[in-house]
Amino acid sequence: MPNSSDPECTLHRTSHVPAVSLTASIDAVMLIIRLSARYGPLMFRHGAMAESVQPLCRPVGSIALSESDVKLGEIAGCEYWIDASTIARLGQGAYLLDVLNPSVTPHGTPALTDRFVLRPQAG
Length: 123
Description:
It contains two helices and eight strands, in the order ββαββββαββ. By secondary structure, it is of the alpha/beta class. Strands 1-5-6-3-4 form a five-stranded mixed β-sheet. Strands 2-7-8 form a three-stranded mixed β-sheet. The model is unreliable at 1-5 and 10-14 (pLDDT under 50).
């Protein structure tokens, strides 16, 4: 579970998105750090695809943003953008950016081929 007092695991809000909070698991933060070291600055975009819980993570500038995208803030130094209709579909609450079925490297870190997933948090 993420440590909510750890600044790398907490979303830093930069726009008004009512009652939506986002944190990241340690696996997600470690994967972001490893990917950033390899590919440079990264960004997330969570599009309007129906039932999608997997945000895209790509180098900054390589994902086209639309007018309906809202910047929620940053996780581990990466901007997190989400389509406004996706926020409406997901609803209010707390969400966790995590790694889908993490495969662990010999060093105990998530593999660079792992995918991110957005999970609702109970509570």
